[in-house]
Amino acid sequence: MYPDGSMSFQSGNLMFRDRQTRHFNNDLPVTLTIAPPRIEQLAERPDLLPVVATWIYQEWWTAVDGASVGTLTDLLRAHRVPDQMPLTLVATLKTLPVGTATLLVHDVGTEQWPQFSPWLAAVYVVPEYRYRGIGAALVNAIVAKATALGVVALYLQTVGSEKFYARLGWRVLRTAEEKILMSKPTAG
Ligand SMILES: CC(C)(COP(=O)(O)OP(=O)(O)OC[C@H]1O[C@@H](n2cnc3c(N)ncnc32)[C@H](O)[C@@H]1OP(=O)(O)O)[C@@H](O)C(=O)NCCC(=O)NCCS
User: N or C: which end of the chain has fewer CB within 10 A?
Assistant: First the structure.
């Protein structure tokens, strides 16, 4: 049990806190009660493909010439085979989709590191549902999937989120200008 009285519990190999205390506008602390997200493969939830494509497009692809939500929809169609790469996970709270993460053989923009594979990519949580452990649950679920697929180490590139990943056991391997390459051995 945590000092604020909240509990953590285990779902698969994911640790999740059921409550978090947050301070809004420097007011009194507010304790949120949080259900753990359900995490499924996009391959099992093709109905969520349009929303995941929209998130990824809006977060990373709007500046890419000629790209549209349709581009991402087409790319994600390759993620329709369960338990193989490329693989996308989607987190839902009750029936609401709230986040995603992807496992790729090679990520866009990692061409200078062809020796490293596979990659955690496109980790995204809907802004209103951040700071509840959903991002961490998605990252850990990708690591668990990769382990099950026989992967011994995973890689990611980030600009600015290295502390988030460091807390989850990822370590910096290389830096290239503002881009940071991180790695994590799996339990496999
Ligand atoms: C990064 C992201 C997935 C985190 O999702 P989340 O559900 O809020 O993550 P969690 O609740 O598991 O963890 C939040 C914790 O990580 C920290 N954190 C989140 N983003 C961070 C960042 N960029 N740098 C440092 N810490 C960060 C938060 O401060 C929080 O810490 P706290 O609980 O001690 O306050 C979410 O902020 C997001 O979708 N961002 C936009 C897309 C993005 O940048 N993805 C990462 C690409 S490499």
Answer: N
Q: What are the extents of the domains in the chain?
A: 1-34, 37-185
Topology of the domain comprising 37-185: Aminopeptidase (3.40.630)
CB within 8 Å of 5: residues ≥ 6 apart: 19
CA of 47 to the centre of ligand 1 (A): 26
What is the spatial distance between Cα 116 and Cα 170, in angstroms, rounded to a whole number? Answer: 15
Confidence band of 4 (pLDDT split at 50, 70, 90): very low
Could you give the CA distance from residue 85 to residue 106 in angstroms, rounded to a whole number?
10
The pTM score is: 0.86
- The atom of ligand 1 lying closest to the CA of 156 is 48
Residue nearest to atom 4 of ligand 1 (CA): 135
